[in-house]
Every structure is written in structure tokens, then in C-alpha cells.
Specification:
By secondary structure, the chain is α+β, with helices and mostly antiparallel strands. The chain contains 14 helices and 15 strands. It has helices at about 1-20, 115-140, 145-170, 175-190, 200-210, 215-220, 225-240, 240-255, 260-275, 280-290, 300-305, 340-350, 355-360, 395-400; strands spanning about 20-25, 35-40, 45-50, 60-65, 70-80, 85-90, 95, 110, 320, 325, 330-335, 365-370, 385-390, 410-415, 420-425. A 5-stranded mixed beta sheet has the order 13-12-11-14-15, with helices on one face. The protein has a 4-stranded mixed beta sheet with strand order 4-1-7-8, with helices on one face. Helix 2 (about 115-140) packs antiparallel against helix 3, helix 2 runs parallel beside helix 4 (about 175-190) and helix 8 packs parallel to helix 10. The model is unreliable at about 1-20 (pLDDT under 50).
Length: about 425
């Protein structure tokens, strides 16, 4: 019986090996070199294998069962420099390059429609756009009444037709490569037509992210951070409407099936909006996603944002050297970091308007994120009594309790100890200008 079981296990082992997804690589110029093989996953990379190419530059990469079904970009990286990026999507295939510098032209794929499609369409797109750039130069060089202008105009229409056909072919394809190309176009700022007005193109690109972009595809693309950063920048620079940004963010979240990706997207959006000083947006998105029940393994920044005290709630007690301090009078609470340009600007504003603030009945309490007594080569002389600093930076209890993720931050608090507002600038509090 024992022998039968051992034989059965051996057969099972052979079957499992046969069924495992494998990729044969052949880089003849790099025989004996060490390599690392990784798969993309949002802001992270999962190392799948490490090893050494044989003397002929060959190796067999095996996708583990834990990653079965993975569709996305992988990186075959030589530790001495160089390597190759390619798509993995349920294919057993081979990669071969006999040249020293692998590229689209000299790398051959056998058994991989995914990588063949990617290479072919990227090259076709590049050829069309290169010609279109030259044609556009000609259209600007020659006047409309000149014969060559007509010729350039005709060629421009021809190239536009080719480009539209290429986009339609890509849109109809079910390959991962097709979705990757669409992400690449977004990052390159490529719209559906040449000489498209910027506002029209921006709306088109925003619509793509909001309604069409598959976040699972993006998560495994290696373009996770760049795409989300680009989209937030597009919203901030062109659309310029926080209500639209919030609605579009909620629509994107509603289309994400994986809780892991839902959490990762939330964390990335919160991080980007924090950089932009969009505290109200950070709070709105954090509270919206917290109610979804879909967030998992939260980063500290997102946890702080979710637990942040809100307008209308009682101001949390502050930790001072003498113990806990409950706020029960009109207070302007100011969180800052010495050396931060925006913080220094607000410090000067606060000092210059100190008498006005005091005459309006506000007590000022400042809380510094400084790690040393003269952080940022700034030593401040403040006229108000309560100046808190525990030299723990943003990890200090007061910064944690108030969920401060960016400085400067002001809180206005009324006589009953309730928070009445949260602001990035003193002038926005309306204390000094009404």
C-alpha cells in the first residue's frame, strides 16, 4: 500500500509539473548571469523566482500555483542590469533574443498571442503617430492655397483613418495586451483623434478612467501609481471640480470587484489628495469607503483619515507635558512643521494677525511636528502660551488623534469644545477677514 501511494504521489507530481505554466527564456548574451523574476501587484512587486541563466543564456520560469490565473506584466531582471518586460496570461511560451539589447524588433515570442499583439500594435501606433507629427509640421509650414498643403491634408485624413481602425481593433480584442495598450495611451495623453482640443481630450481621457478602465488590469500593469496620479492631476488641472472628482471616484470604486484592489485604490487616492491639501475630499472618500465594509489591511494614513474628528464633533483632548488638556473655549488649533514653506507662510500670517485673532476671543494652541528643537533651521518666538511639541513628528499622539496627514492644518473650535471647521490656511477660517 505504501508503494502504491508513493507511486501515486510521484505521478501526481509529474502531472502538476506538466500543468504548471512555464516560460522559456533565451538571452544568449547573458549566459551565467543572475536574474530575478517578478510580477506586478499595485504599488508592490511579487518575486516569483531567482536563479542563474545557464551558460547558453537559457532558463525556465515557472509560475507557481498561488499565482495561477495571473494576467499582467512581469519583469525578468538581470541583477547586473538589463532584462525584459512581458505579459503573462495563462500561456506557456518562449522568449528569445540573440542581441545584446532586447527590444520590440529583435525579441521573438513563440506561443504568445498576448506579447505578439502588444509588440505589433505598439509599433503600428508609433509609426502612425510619427508620420502624423511630420504631416502636422507640413500643414503648418504650407499655406492652404499651396498644393503641398492639400497633399498633407489628404495624408492626415489617411493617417487618422488608420489610427481609428487601430483603436477599434484594440478595443474589440479580449487580450490583456489590448487593455494594457489603452492604459499606455492614457498615460501618453493620446486621444481618439489628431489635433484634438485639450479640453475635449481631457474629458475623453477622464471618461476612460471613470467608465472603462479595468482596475484589475491596471493593478497588474506596472502603471498603477502613474495612472492614478495622472488621473488625479487631470482632475485638478483641467476639470477643476471637487464634486466631479468625488462622484467619479465613487463610480470607479463601484466597479472594482476585488477588496484588495478597492483598498489599494482608496489608499492611493487618499495619498494623492493629501499631497494636494484636499482634506475635505480625503475625509469624504475615507468615510465613504469605510462604510462599504470592503477595506482590508489599512495603511496608517488611511486609518487616520477614517478616524479623523469631523466638524460638529467634540475636539479630542490634547496631550501636554502636564497631562491631558480638554478644549472647552474658543480655540484656534494650529498644526505645523518648521521648515515647510506653506507652514512658514501661515506662521507669518498668524503672527501678523495675532491681535485680531485674540480680540475675536480665540485662544491659540500650536502643535509642532518637529523632531528637534530647531527643526528646519527655524526657531519661532510665539506670543501665545500653549506651544506643544513632543518631538515625535507625525507619529505623536496629538497628530494621530487629530488624524493630521498634512501641514499646515487649522481647526476652529467653539465655546462648547465642538469643531466648527478644518482649514489649510488662516485666511480660510474667516477669523481675520470678517
Amino acid at each position: 500500500m505504501k508503494n502504491i501511494l508513493l507511486r501515486s504521489l510521484a505521478v501526481f507530481g509529474v502531472m502538476t509539473s506538466v500543468q504548471a505554466q512555464t516560460i522559456n527564456v533565451n538571452f544568449s548574451h547573458y549566459g551565467g548571469k543572475q536574474y530575478v523574476y517578478v510580477l506586478e501587484r499595485g504599488s508592490k512587486k511579487d518575486t516569483i523566482a531567482t536563479g542563474k541563466l545557464d551558460p547558453a543564456g537559457k532558463a525556465v520560469l515557472v509560475i507557481p500555483q498561488a499565482k495561477k490565473g495571473y494576467a499582467g506584466i512581469s519583469h525578468f531582471v538581470l541583477t547586473d542590469g538589463g532584462g525584459m518586460d512581458f505579459i503573462v496570461n495563462k500561456e506557456n511560451f518562449s522568449i528569445s533574443c540573440l542581441e545584446e539589447q532586447p527590444n520590440f524588433e529583435n525579441t521573438k515570442y513563440t506561443g504568445s498571442p498576448e506579447n505578439d499583439f502588444l509588440n505589433q500594435k505598439i509599433q503600428q501606433q508609433k509609426a502612425i503617430l510619427d508620420k502624423a507629427g511630420f504631416v502636422n509640421y507640413g500643414l503648418n509650414l504650407y499655406k492652404k492655397e499651396e498644393p503641398l498643403h492639400t497633399a498633407f491634408q489628404k495624408e492626415n485624413e489617411n493617417l487618422q483613418g488608420q489610427f481609428t481602425a487601430l483603436q477599434n481593433e484594440t478595443a474589440k480584442s479580449t487580450l490583456y495586451a489590448a487593455r494594457f495598450i489603452e492604459i499606455y495611451r492614457f498615460l501618453m495623453g493620446i486621444g481618439s483623434s489628431f489635433n484634438q482640443p485639450e479640453e475635449e481630450k481631457a474629458k475623453e481621457l477622464n471618461l476612460f478612467v471613470k467608465e472603462k478602465l479595468d482596475m484589475q488590469v491596471l493593478y497588474n500593469s506596472g502603471f498603477w501609481n502613474q495612472t492614478i496620479e495622472g488621473w488625479v492631476n487631470l482632475q485638478q488641472m483641467v476639470i477643476k471640480d471637487d464634486a466631479v472628482l468625488l462622484a467619479d471616484t465613487k463610480q470607479i470604486l463601484s466597479r472594482i470587484k476585488s477588496n484588495e484592489i478597492y483598498t489599494a485604490f482608496t489608499e492611493k487616492i487618499v495619498a494623492e489628495l493629501t499631497k494636494e491639501g484636499k482634506d475635505e475630499m480625503v475625509t469624504a472618500i475615507s468615510q465613504y469607503t469605510a462604510k462599504s465594509g470592503r477595506l482590508e489591511k489599512l495603511a496608517k494614513q488611511l486609518t487616520n483619515a477614517i478616524n479623523a474628528p469631523v466638524i460638529g464633533s467634540l475636539a479630542p483632548a490634547l496631550q501636554t507635558a502636564a497631562g491631558k488638556k480638554t478644549i472647552n473655549k474658543k480655540t484656534l488649533l494650529f498644526f505645523y512643521e518648521s521648515g515647510c514653506n506653506n507652514c512658514e507662510n501661515e506662521i507669518h500670517q498668524l503672527l501678523g494677525n495675532y491681535e485680531i485673532v485674540k480680540n475675536k476671543g480665540y485662544e491659540i494652541i500650536s502643535v509642532a511636528a518637529d523632531m528637534t528643537k530647531n527643526a528646519g533651521d527655524h526657531s519661532h518666538e510665539f506670543p501665545w502660551k500653549e506651544q506643544l511639541c513632543d518631538y515625535k513628528g507625525f507619529a505623536g499622539p496629538n497628530f494621530q488623534t487629530y488624524a493630521i496627514i498634512g501641514t499646515p492644518t487649522f481647526f476652529t473650535i467653539d465655546e462648547k469644545g465642538k469643531i466648527t471647521g478644518k482649514y489649510a490656511r488662516l485666511i480660510d477660517t474667516k477669523i481675520i477677514n470678517n
